[in-house]
Amino acid sequence: MEYLLVHEVALGNTPCYASVTKRQHWPELPPCQEQSLVSQLQTTLDLQQQLNIISMAAGKVLPLSGLRLKTAVGDFTASGSRMAECEHRSVLVLNQQCLAELIYHSDYPFSPMSLRELGLLEAEWLYALRNALVVHRLQQMALKDTLTGLGNRRFFDDSFDKAVLLAQRHDERCALILLDLDNFKQVNDLSGHSAGDDILLAVADCLRDTLRATDSLFRFGGDEFAVILSGTDTDSAELVARRLVRAINQHHLCQQHQVSASAGLALLKPQQDAKALFSAADSALYAAKDAGKSTVRVA
């Protein structure tokens, strides 16, 4: 078994240096320490929880101000982290596969001895980290639409319930936009499902490009999409809905196949639950369809 670690240290104005260490076998930790850390890591497959465990263990090596983990499935930050003057980066590799980059922050320099001890901790984490990454990736796949990469209906249901509860708890605004493509069925009937998929991908891109990073976008399946807006009033939410419809209507593929979009908008009212808010947005969508399509209606 070979492990590869890449270290990079930046201390104030001191030039950064990098070293690559390749070992056939890692020195063994004392049995009590190894069992303690491994047993803790084996209690969870949650990446955030594992990172917090590693952060606590690394904090016994030297005082850390922060610890970050960068992976292909997302970035994670240990609880209570902050930036500091000294930084150390370590690339975690298992069986020639790069798993993640671990970034330490400390107010104190990283000595060769502390780097060695951190490397030992990282080696103990590799298998648990790999397993957690696999689980996280599977969870992401289960919550995403396979064609567009947007959140699917299952992800929407969970996110929508949470958004409504948070808005009610903190007395904040929350809005829901439901969109439906007009004349989409004729594309599949006349031009085939491949052309229909191209339009769905184009629509997903239009919606992504138009929305803010804080807005949540989902595809229900078929030609239906949903957007959750937080912290917005009626006028702003309606403006967003009209921008979304216009972006779809003006896309060249949609124009080529005579596909447009209709949208229904509803804002959360006092004492209203998620089911009632969804019903209001759905009714507004049907009103937009009845009004001649390619338009927006507000509940």
TrEMBL record:
Database matches in InterPro entries: Diguanylate_Cyclase (IPR050469), GGDEF_dom (IPR000160), Nucleotide_cyclase (IPR029787), Rev_trsase/Diguanyl_cyclase (IPR043128)
Cellular component per GO, a single term: plasma membrane
Any Pfam family matching the protein: GGDEF
Enzyme class: transferase
Catalytic activities: 2 GTP = 3',3'-c-di-GMP + 2 diphosphate
EC number: 2.7.7.65
CDD domains tied to this protein: GGDEF
Named cofactor requirement(s): Mg(2+)
GO molecular function: diguanylate cyclase activity
Domain GGDEF: 172-299
A GO biological process held by the record: cell adhesion involved in single-species biofilm formation
Matches recorded under NCBIfam families: GGDEF
Listed name of the protein: diguanylate cyclase
Protein's organism: Rheinheimera nanhaiensis E407-8
